[in-house]
Each structure stands twice: as structure tokens, then as C-alpha cells.
Amino acid sequence: MKILYLETSSKNCSVAVSDNEKLLCVCEEVSENYKQSESLHTYVEWALEGAGIAIKDIEAVSLGKGPGSYTGLRIGAASAKGFCYGLKVPLIAVNSMESMIEPFLGDNYDFIVPLIDARRMEVYTAVYDGNTGKELSETEAKILDETSFEEFRDKKVLFVGDGAKKAKEILNLPDAVFNENVYPSAQYLIQKTLEKIENKEFEDMAYFEPFYLKDFHGVKKKNS
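Request: output the structure for the sequence above.
Response:
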């Protein structure tokens, strides 16, 4: 089964193509300027070309549904729906944090905690079992302070994501490992996507919305 994966929830604009569990091609770039609007469809073309298949060969589309950048998620969701409607294929949506923990499962950590930078001292986070990837606490918006994640003081815990930098500065967890250079990536959506296809967990495209977690807050321009 040929599947197209889109992940646009962060600074990493990421597209991948797989044939079942086999990754055929991934095309992605981390940019401080959030390049989804200008790069996503180009990356789709490149990924398909790299995989050696045509868009008409795609049999399902999988989307990293967030949480993360409001604008990035809007772009990814609109594109995913467009491909699904045009190709008449199902839409699968996976929590973007699942793709952040995937590369580190089985690396001898008790827990893996994604931290997506929100604003000020806030992060989007969840807690996963470091071995199985099972979600142990639901995704939430959390204000970091010195007492955050105290329950992991004597555990082997890995914090991943661009929110790990500010967490490292404030958390009093000397044995924790922090990796701030981890972003959601389309190539790590494969396993969860195949599980959802197996269980026929498809999205209703008429009602599907990304996992924004919080309402959008625009910035008002000051009157000159």
C-alpha cells in the first residue's frame, strides 16, 4: 500500500512516501521561518519523484495532526484533505508527538517526554513509555516551573523537542537527557499509520480538524 505522509506542525516541513512499512523517500527541512505554505507541495513532488511513483498511485494519506503551529497545521490539513478528495483515498491522522518519540523507543529510557515550545514558559507535552511507546499521560499544554516532572527525578527520562532547551534551564533533574534538535517528522508516522489502517481508524474528512490544543491567538497591529 503506497502512503503519502505530511507533517507540518513545527518548523520542520516534512513529507514522506512509503510502501507499507518500507520508507521509499523523505523530503524535509527545518526552517525558522515556517516554510510550509511555500514548500509543502514542492516537497510532495520531490518525495513522489524520489519514491519513483505518481500521485495517482497513492492509496492513503497520513497527517501529523498536531499539536503545534496553528498555521502549519491548517496548511497540512487543507493539503491532506485536498489529496484525499482528489484521489478518493482515506485520511489517517496521528498525534505529531508520536513521530518525535519513535526514533528513541527501546533506547533504554524509562520515559520519553516530547516538549513542543509554545509561548513563554509553556510547552505542549505528553509522557510515553520509553520501551513500548504507550501513551501514559494525555497531551496537554503545561507551564514549566522548577517542580515540573519531579516524579521522574530517579528515572531515566529523555526530553525531546524544541521546548527541551528552556526545560533544561529550569528543571532540577540532573539525570535527565535533553535533546532539543528533535522535530516531528513524516518518516516516523509510518508505524502508527499502519496500525490505524489495520484497525480502520480513518478520519471523517467533512469534520476533521487538526489537534490545535489551544485557540489561535493573533497579534494585533498597533495603530501608527
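The beta strands are 2-7, 12-19, 22-30, 60-64, 91-94, 111-117, 122-129, 135-143, 157-160, 177-179.
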